[in-house]
Design a protein that fits this description.
Elements: E1 2-4, E2 7-12, H1 14-19, E3 20-30, H2 34-41, E4 45-46, E5 51-55, E6 58-62, E7 65-66, E8 83-86, H3 89-100, E9 104-114, E10 117-127, H4 130-153
Antiparallel strand pairs: 1-2, 2-9, 3-8, 3-10, 4-7, 5-6, 6-8, 9-10
Length: 156
């Protein structure tokens, strides 16, 4: 749980950064039911395997799992139902145009609360190949080794 300037990050999709090159990010509202909001606040949500698709002028997120709220007295909605994303028309057109390009897709990166409203950070992304992933891991290991070297070399 990270809190910065009124933003409370609930769930992040770290695997997306490993599997995709992030080209551009967008912020969208998420249409949730009352009990779903309570579950999201309790961090009972998962973005694993979820994706975004633009159809009929609307952006929707598929396969986002929200655990049913245990104190809900009303009927429970489906935990992986399709949820509408709240964007303006210009942003939807931009997302649709970007997703139409071969090799690019829309992936959710994180869910957070901003000034009390549930938001989702979307990315227009391009898939990585296996050799790109290995290269990223090499850079990460190299940076880690450099940090260890700096940490050990500074003595007072």
């Amino acid at each position: 749980m990270v809190k910065q300037e009124g933003v409370l990050v609930v769930c992040s999709n770290r695997k997306a950064y490993h599997d995709y090159f992030i080209l551009e990010t967008f912020e969208a509202g998420v249409s949730l039911l009352g009990a779903e909001v309570k579950s999201v606040r309790q961090k009972e949500v998962s973005l694993e395997g979820s994706f975004v698709r633009v159809e009929n002028g609307q952006a929707n997120i598929y396969n986002m799992y929200v655990k049913p709220y245990k104190f809900n007295s009303l009927s429970e909605p489906d935990p992986v139902r399709t949820r509408r994303l709240l964007l303006n028309a210009r942003e939807i057109r931009k997302l649709h145009a970007g997703a139409e390009i071969k090799g690019q897709t829309l992936v959710p990166l994180e869910i957070y609360f901003k000034r009390g409203w549930a938001k989702i950070k979307l990315a227009l992304a391009k898939g990585k190949h296996n050799y790109d992933k290995r290269e990223s891991l090499k850079k990460k290991d190299l940076n880690r080794e450099m940090e260890k070297g700096f940490k050990n070399s500074i003595r007072f």
